[in-house]
Amino acid sequence: MLAHHVFASDIAQPPQGSAGATGWIDLFDPTTQELEYVARVFRIQVPSREALQEIETSSRLRADGEVLYLSMPLAERDPGQKFSPVPLGFILSPAMLISVRYRAVRAFETVLGQVGEHPPPGSAEVFTALIEALVDSSADLLEQLATDLATVSVRTFGHTPHVGPAVRGRATVSQVLREGLHAVGSAGDHLSRVRESVLGLQRITRYVEETADWMSEQYKARLARARQDLASLVDFESHLSGKTQFLLDAVLGFINTEQNDIFKVLTIVSVVGIPPTLIASIYGMNFRHMPELNWPWGYAYGLALIALSTLLPIVWFKRRGWW
Questions:
Q1: Fewer CB in a 10 Å sphere around the end CB: N or C, the chain?
Q2: Total domain count for the chain?
Q3: Is 249:155 a contact under the CB 8 Å cutoff?
């Protein structure tokens, strides 16, 4: 979909001819025909999705005169609460801004609402507003991930009433740990995607500050503040990554403890069962001369030995604190 948003200056004095057209061209999941149309009308090279996915710095950040070509991976949470990184591209010049995106982005919706109410004065204003909105969106994602990790931490260490009473059996404990392991792994994956997106924003803002000589100091100052916010987000993401690793180690440690407890129970059961089995096997031998064979109380004597050989190991394990 192609949307053309005219700048405020062009509303007062419309440019003559398509070659002089300006404004913000927002390409949302564009078709090949739309990409070719924009390239032909505005006489500019519009990168394809494959070109936006290039990871080399020279491919993501380059200049052709006053025209800047910028791209980055964007981490955006979809309705399914998943992060699917998509490429995001900008073509920035003094007269126009072209954005290329392949999914709905909340930051763009925010700026589009502002543009609908008050047309922006130029490309620098729209680009700066988009960068600021993307920074706010990244901060919201990190805050949500921090909340998710806090929830996992509480469930893992069992400090809330809704966790403690529910954990009554080994099956429930194992289920909680399994869910915690899945949540920690998912949070770690999401954090890596958000970090990649934040670092991409950092590179773009620094590159525009240093390269766009035509941009006024007002917008460069706003980009500098956005870059400072991004630096704090990187630090916060590093903190969350450390917490994720801690929770991962803790969950795996609890899982190992649960497994050790299971093996301990199996070991105790096997040890407790050996003496009765030995006694029963001895008195199950069909020898003619067995002293207890003709005893009136031989059967009760054998059962008493089996019971005693079962209880003694249990009492011993209990006193040792293994049971």
A1: N
A2: 2
A3: no
> Does residue 152 or residue 79 have the better pLDDT?
152
Do 237 and 281 belong together in one domain? no
pLDDT grade, residue 228 (50/70/90)?
very high
184-225, pLDDT tens digit by residue?
888 888 888 888 888 888 899 999 988 888 888 888 899 999
Name the residue with tokens 């969106």. Answer: 137
Q: Does the pLDDT of residue 136 top 80, yes or no?
A: yes
DSSP string, 5-44: E--HHHHHSPPSSGGG--EEEEEES--HHHHHHHHHHHT-
Percent of the chain past pLDDT 70, that is, above it, reads: 83
Would you give the DSSP letter of residue 291?
G
Given a contact cutoff of 8 angstroms between Cβ atoms, the answer to whether 90 and 72 are in contact is no
161 lies in the same domain as 298: no
Residue type at 77? R
Among 37-41, 114-118, 284-288, the range of highest mean pLDDT: 37-41
Q: In terms of domains, do 240 and 264 share one? A: no
180: which residues sit within 8 A by CB, 6+ positions away? 152, 155, 156, 247, 251
297 and 189 in one domain?
no
> Does 168 lie in the same domain as 102?
yes
Q: Decide: 145 and 75 in contact? Cβ < 8 Å.
A: no
Tens-digit pLDDT profile for residues 3-22: 777 676 554 454 444 444 57
Q: Is 286 exposed, middle or buried (0-12, 13-18, 19+ CB in 10 A)?
A: exposed
Whether residue 266 sits in one domain with residue 255? no
Q: Which domain holds residue 287?
A: 260-319
Taking the C-alpha atoms of residue 181 and residue 250, their distance in angstroms, rounded to an integer, is 10
Residue 48 has pLDDT above 80, yes or no: no
